[in-house]
Specification:
Elements lengths: L6 E5 L3 H11 L5 E5 L2 H11 L3 E5 L7 H10 L8 E5 L4 H10 L3 E4 L4 H52 L6 H16 L3 H12 L10 H4 L7 H7 L2 H9 L10 H5 L20 H15 L11 H10 L7 H15 L3
Parallel strand pairs: 1-2, 1-3, 3-4, 4-5
Helix pairs in contact: 2-3, 6-7, 6-12, 6-14, 12-13
């Protein structure tokens, strides 16, 4: 017996035939619903959405062929398997049944073993199709949920950029450039998703930094720097409770770590720093230095590249610096 109970709608105008079918199928564990004519069968089918319909052909009023056509015309019933039960065994009746949309025939008087075997085969196949459809629906629902999450993340990042007009567009630029650098490094697609989310959220911790510090048009004093240096940990503390974002937190937490161990918040060194944060760090500094800030004008591309070369092995992973320089050269080459 199948673990999941299948519902069989039995349609026959003869009560003795219905009782015979019940006696054969009840021991198999099916849920059985009975209808004595075509009209009642359609009402029951719409109400219960059966897994299979066993349908007598020779009935007064609507015969089995007509009922089958009406079933197939209903969107919610069009895929329900229909087995016609008939004493007719001529070729014309067979063709009419197939044209009406029947899936199978069982000729009366039917063999109980054959009936059980046919039903088991059909219900198993029907359940498999329903399982595939359900998996597809779950996949689509999951994807829709992820899309909604990502739109929320993008909204958060835009809100951060709007808070500081001087850095507007920074998050979008560094996210795109970090993804390009990660692809050149050979990062796989699933990890790219986490890198994208982490880049979008890299400055989320600055929500906890007062405007008087964040927007100060001059250099920060030591106390202000101490507070500013807390923003990676603030981001981590804010975002860690959101489980699906945990794989993306390497960048928000570690993008100010330095290859030589002089960074913050944890003073990580070398490959202790997660790859995503090492990739992002170079891009973040590039974009920051080539953009105007309240306390200084933008550097030229040449000045910035020279600084990044000089910081290879100090601030930045040397391998990633070489890759970044190649990426910039390729982007500036004539097309």
């Amino acid at each position: 017996m199948d673990e999941i109970q299948s519902t069989i709608l039995i349609v026959d105008d003869e009560s003795s035939n219905r009782e015979t079918l019940v006696s054969i199928l009840e021991p198999e564990g099916y849920r059985l619903v009975l209808a004595e004519d075509g009209r009642r069968a359609l009402e029951q089918a719409k109400a219960i959405q059966p897994d299979v319909i066993l349908l007598d052909v020779m009935m007064p009023g609507l015969n089995g062929f007509e009922v089958c056509r009406l079933v197939r015309a209903e969107d919610n019933l069009a895929e329900v398997p229909v087995i016609l039960l008939t004493a007719l065994d001529d070729r014309q009746s067979l063709l009419e049944g197939l044209n009406s949309g029947a899936d199978d025939f069982i000729t009366k008087p039917f063999n109980r073993h054959e009936l059980r075997a046919r039903l088991k085969s059909i219900t198993r196949l029907d359940r498999y199709h329903k399982l595939l459809e359900e998996r597809q629906r779950l996949h689509e629902a999951h994807q829709n949920l992820l899309d909604a999450y990502d739109k929320t993340i993008e909204g958060w990042s835009r809100a951060m950029d709007l808070r500081d007009r001087e850095t507007e567009g920074h998050t979008r630029r560094v996210t795109q450039m970090t993804l390009e650098l990660a692809k050149m490094f050979g990062v796989e697609s699933e990890q790219l998703t986490h890198i994208r989310r982490g880049a979008l959220l890299h400055d989320m911790g600055k929500l906890g930094i007062p405007d008087s510090i964040l927007l100060k048009p001059a250099s920060l004093d030591p106390d202000e720097w101490e507070l500013m240096r807390q923003h990676p940990q603030l981001a981590y503390d804010m975002l860690y409770p959101i489980e699906y974002l945990r794989p993306a937190l390497d960048i928000p937490l570690c993008h100010h770590e330095k290859w030589d161990g002089a960074g913050y918040p944890r003073g990580l060194k070398g490959t202790e720093i997660p790859l995503a944060a090492r990739l992002f760090a170079v891009v973040d500094v590039w974009d920051a230095l080539t953009s105007d800030r309240p306390y200084r004008p933008a550097w030229s591309a040449e000045e910035t590249l020279a600084y990044i070369r000089e910081q290879s092995g100090k601030h930045f992973d040397p391998e990633i610096v070489e890759l970044f320089l190649r990426m910039v050269d390729e982007s500036r080459a004539p097309r």
